[in-house]
Design brief:
Helix content is 57%, strand content 11%. It contains 6 helices and 2 strands; from the N terminus they run ααααβαβα. Strands 1-2 form a two-stranded antiparallel sheet. The radius of gyration is 22 Å and the shape is flat.
């Protein structure tokens, strides 16, 4: 019985380490967007426009609840410029574009 308990603890420790390593691994945007693909964008606006879209659920405004009821669901759709699955604001998209521009244009 002691062996099984030790085995389970060791197994849990290894799985926790794997999860931590997976979360800590950052993907470089240059590995996702090639120079050829980046050169197709004429400016940052076009880059943002052609980035994948992400939709998130947000808290409805009191006016929305008054008009549609308490079961109303409100969502926002925006761009995922760095391809991490999280909606990015304009500053983040500009930073990603600039990073790619520095990598490929110089």
């Amino acid at each position: 019985m002691k062996f099984i308990a030790v085995f389970i603890v060791v197994l849990l420790l290894f799985s926790a380490t794997d999860v931590y390593a997976f979360e800590a691994k950052k993907v470089d945007i240059g590995d996702i967007i090639s120079k050829e693909q980046f050169s197709r964008y004429k400016d940052v606006g076009e880059f943002i426009e052609h980035s994948p879209k992400v939709t998130i659920e947000v808290k409805p405004e009191p006016e929305d609840i008054a008009e549609y009821g308490t079961d109303v669901v409100k969502s926002l759709t925006g761009s995922d410029c760095d391809r991490d699955g999280i909606m990015d604001d304009n500053a983040k998209c500009n930073a990603v574009y600039y990073k790619l521009w520095m990598r490929y244009e110089r």
